[in-house]
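Schema walk-through. Below, the input block comes first and the output block second. Nothing else is stored per chain. Lengths vary across the set, and this one has 445 residues.
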Amino acid sequence: MRAIGYSTVEDGDEGTLAETERAFHEYCRLNLHQPIKAFISVEQDEGGRGVGYRRMMDYMVQSEGEFLVVVPGARVLGADLESVARSIVELDGLGAKVACVDEEFPDPMQNAFHTLGIKGVSRTRSRRIKESMRARALQGQALGRPLFGYRIGPEGLLAAVKGEAAVVELIFRLYTKDGLGLRLIAQHLNERGISTRRGGNWNVVSIRDILRNPAYTGTYSRYGMRRPNVHEAIIPAEVFRAAQDLMKSRRPSGRVVSSEPFLLSGRAYCAYCGNKMMGVTRRQSWRRKDGRRARGVYRYYQCQSRNNLSLCDYHTWRAPLLESTVLSQLKYALAANAPRTLGGGDESPGGQAGATREGKVRDAERRFLAAMKRYAAGSLGVAGLAEYLNGLDGARRSAASVERPADVEATLANWESIEFETRRAFLADHVARIVVEDDSVQIEV
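--- output ---
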């Protein structure tokens, strides 16, 4: 696998600089990785990462490839557990995995728990667990819950499950041979009653994760190691490579799209299937009659079941129209609940509403800590870790918005002049659910 080295050293310590680079190349030699480039910083930013971290990120974006980022330890990824987790999620977004040179704790999150420490975690017990997991990994034995298509055999190795393996083969065939995209594959499986292991519906994320996982070729990957032909293969190597090439060719290049968040995300629900309405941004261009090019950006809310699972029907609202409709009804909905809402709430930082938001932050922090432990144990993926991180960020944004006007009528009257996050926090406090039909909206406060 192509590897990139990243580390930080003290300014002027040339010996450490050379030693760090040698350790990176030696790690690659021992684990059969291809060393590409090393980014070693002598300065650090406020988050504990070196200034070379951003240069490394830019390099990976321009290279448009998958890399293994090799670090001496988790400390170079952040000054605390949360910072390390953010770095792992950010790097995974570019298709990069992280491994530590530290032989005792090669997994970055496990390394972070060990080196940075955390209250309530026994380092001695943690070390014994990690040593056991490391020994099993060296033998290619499965750790955690087996992926779809496999079970853990009597010797601890992955063994194919006949029915699930057939579904995996179907997914690869639909993608590489029939040319179907991720959403159409999900629709194909769901319409035919083919469910996930838990009996749920398929979505674009679960389809993508299967197409990107080299384990289906019989390759075992863990702790920066990659061992081929360890367990039974479901997909031939050439079919897997064809899927990766196709994914890369379909990946947008040459531009970075940064969409603004949607005001009603997480609160609007489809009245027909009960799933959430998700915000979608579409960019279109066309040529006018006079020959000039024109471009437009369209934002709307669409049923998530339709968009991700290819279920339900095409229920959609233009974002400005749905948001203005909700705002127009909100005043009357809140007035009906007076005096609990109109001028009657305690919005001070020390009041009941402020205490509620602070409690939500503490709950989100506990959930995120538990998620990091699950990720370190191998029972949660990076996508799940990112989901808990987003929940923590949302709780903190809500808690930071205690400076908004206490009077509900004044807030609604000055809606357009209020910051976006303050409006989001206001809706979080006063709106429980927005049920969206094709031609009407119901607000539950």
